[in-house]
Amino acid sequence: MSDWADAKRVPAGELASLVGRSFVSRWLIVDQQRIDAFAKVTEDEQFIHVDPERAGATAFGGTVAHGFLTLSLLSTLAYSALPRIEGAAHGVNYGFDRVRFVHPVRSGTRVRGHFKLLAATQRSKREWQLTYDVSVEIEGAHKPALAATWLTIMKLRPRDARLQSGSPGPCPGKAAGRARWSAPGATQEVAGMASLAEISLNRAPAGSAAVLEHHPHGGLVSRRRRHRHR
Asked: Mind listing the domains of the chain with CATH numbers?
């Protein structure tokens, strides 16, 4: 059963305030029954996963979970850790920028997920792209099972998208664009959006993009990034 029903709810308009925040999930046991079921459904029944006797003679000292099993647990771990977005119709996986399987998960051990929201990008009035730095902790281990950069997309219901008064949007007369909030130190790009920075950014030459960046001494500064045509 999903833990998401009991998760904290936040309006989409408050996603920017969560950038840089970290969240930790509940513990989840990875037992042999779970490993066997994953091996059967994926048809990956290598002995290190399903044969305790043969696996015991290896460096693992027993059966271990598939790396992809641990990766697939991110969804259920996220349900118990991440806040739920009000008005969300559904969410989907968008992919991974990076995945590393760092340490084996032995049968019978417990794991939990650590999630840090790196960026929240409003792709349209109804669609948000969320980027997380994630790791899966193994109870009692000095290294995580995996480390990854995870991208997801959250789709809002049409009616709720219109009611998200706190969410960023274009000013009257401006075409809808794309806004991105990143953790401190990361570049923030605003394309096609009306903002105070447009006073200077509108003078940027053709072929360049408007970019807002954190200044080392505080505040935001604007600069121009020229696109290179290949």
From this structure: 4-163 (3.10.129.10), 178-226 (no CATH)
